[in-house]
Amino acid sequence: MPDVHVSLADRSYDIVIGHGLLAGTSTRCRDWCGLAAPGSALVVTDSNLADSHAATVTAGFEADGWLLGRHVLEPGEPSKSLAAAEAMYDSLVALPADRGTLVVAVGGGVVGDAAGFVAATYARGIRFVQVPTTLLAQVDSSVGGKVAVNHPRAKNLVGAFHQPAGVLIDTATLETLPERDYRSGLAEVIKYGVILDVEFFGFLEDNVAGLIGRDQDVLGHVIARSCELKAVVVEQDERETTGVRAVLNYGHTFAHAHEALAGYGELLHGEAVSIGMRRWVGSTLRPLDANWRCSKRSGCR
Ligand code: GLY
């Protein structure tokens, strides 16, 4: 499966995609951080993954001889809070962490956003690596450097732009992902086809059976192309200042309204995005010209 590179000057990084990569996370991290010897790391995950995917990752770090801490969050949106961040700072202090310590986020969007926020703010910013284990996190939230916790009045209100040192996507994690979470992630995949790449949208239409069946070859292409499209957008508007990056929010305005009205936790994010995209298409507005396409090779127009 092809790797994707995100070009952001000294904040550039690779997205590595493959099957069965988790055990080698430690080696990748040393490579990405330029470490000749093992360093120190805090692995952040949630209690659903602590004994499975996160255990595979931490076993690799232990075997390599890293000074290792573990921090296990409660699953779900409440862990994107300043209280949860404070507990992660405590784990870093206990390690003890220094400016060279790496935060490794193993999980879905909540884990990546919260652990990334802690990495962005601890000691004025330390490195972190994303190991996304849900489809939605693999194609969206782990790429692009948006990290945040929620304020009681608004989602993602307290946050930063802090690019990871690398993103490791193990497609084997999708084999055990609950069906509802998997389909929720597909919404963000379809979004890329609608907003940026009509050929990719056609590929999705032609490969519905492979997508539903979680065919590894289909998934590898779909995840790589989604990441590539997101990289192109982020490279042009890293901090969402020019309006280019706003295209990624297609369907999200309605989505946030539906999530808020339903009560956070009722609708999965991708489910709300699906509703949002359908509402947008049903309105008289069109998000982009249907012929607007984006290719990593030819550049966007
Ligand atoms: N998820 C939208 C963005 O990263 O900008």
What does this protein look like?
The structure is a single chain. The protein is an alpha/beta fold. The chain is built from 11 helices and 11 strands. The chain has helices at residues 25-33, 53-64, 82-94, 109-121, 135-141, 179-196, 198-206, 208-212, 216-236, 252-262, 269-282; strands spanning 4-6, 13-18, 40-46, 67-73, 102-107, 128-132, 146-151, 154-161, 166-170, 294-295, 299-300. Strands 1-2-9-6-5-3-4 form a 7-stranded mixed sheet, with helices on both faces. Strand 7 (146-151) and strand 8 (154-161) form a beta hairpin. Residues 140, 144, 146, 245, 248 line the site of glycine (GLY).
Describe the strand arrangement of the main beta sheet, using strand numbers: 1-2-9-6-5-3-4
Name the shape in a single word: globular
Q: Report the end-to-end length measured between terminal Cα atoms.
A: 27 Å
Largest sheet: 7 strands, mixed
Q: How many strand segments?
A: 11
Q: Would you list the SSEs in sequence order as H and E?
A: EEHEHEHEHEHEEEHHHHHHEE
> Structural class, judged by helices and strands?
alpha/beta
Beta-strand proportion? 15-25%
What is the rounded Rg? Answer: 18 Å
Average pLDDT figure:
92
**Separate helix tally:** 11
Listed once per kind, the bound small molecules are: glycine
Low-pLDDT residue intervals, each spanning 5 or more residues: 284-293, 297-301
Q: Helicity level, as a percent range?
A: 40-55%
